[in-house]
Class I SAM-dependent methyltransferase
Amino acid sequence: MFAKIEHGPLMDRVYRHQRHFYDATRKYYLLGRDPMLAGLTPPTSGSILEIGCGTGRNLVLAGRAYPKTSLYGIDISNEMLATARKKIAAAGIGDRATLAYADAAKFEPEAILGRREFDRIFISYAVSMIPQWQAVMREAINHLTPGGALHVVDFGDLRDLPAFARRGLYKWLEWYHVTPRNDLFDVAGEIALAANAQAEIHRLYRGFAWISVIRRHA
Ligand SMILES: C[S@@+](CC[C@H](N)C(=O)[O-])C[C@H]1O[C@@H](n2cnc3c(N)ncnc32)[C@H](O)[C@@H]1O
């Protein structure tokens, strides 16, 4: 079913070696992930899905912060999933975590994770790497329980950086196949409106990181 994915091999190429030092280096510039996790506040025994879970760093922290929740993660890179599986086992949360290989742009959670709806879905620094990110966010809303929420954290518009620094950063991000989504809040607002849901916006670190939250009514 997933044999034709071309984005997957690309992500594997990007992360094959990087995954070994990914968490140690990314903590300096994938900002806003911890505030996003703190804001999840799922129901006590609720379910949490991360789309593009990478090394599993966020799922481990979510597992610690929300100790009775069920955790789910998907990623299009088998290399990243291998690291995530190890990290999750080492953190002792393997019994309540389910990981699967999937393309966020066309995945059926019920088929691969055994669950159709989640109390919280989050996407951390992956909308900037997924070409079909708008469709992924739109579809994620359909997989929220009533009262559930989608949290997205990613690069902001960097508008407070000096122009030369912004240009340099964009160039550097391009090498990693990362495109900041400057229209994230507009798109989230449109998605929320169409789904009769509530959109919230949070600008952090002078616009370096943005968090978008879309909450479904209970
Ligand atoms: C920059 S990393 C972020 C990892 C993690 N979410 C974090 O915050 O540390 C982006 C992740 O998204 C995954 N990814 C990219 N495109 C994807 C897609 N179409 N479907 C699922 N995962 C995808 C990549 O393989 C990678 O693991």
Q: What stands out?
A: The pocket of S-adenosylmethionine is lined by residues 7, 11, 26, 30, 33, 52-54, 57-58, 74-77, 80, 103-105, 124-126, 129-130 (CB under 6 Å). The chain has two domains: 1-119, 128-137+169-204. Confidence is low (pLDDT under 50) at residues 1-5. The CA atoms of residues 1 and 193 lie 33 Å apart.
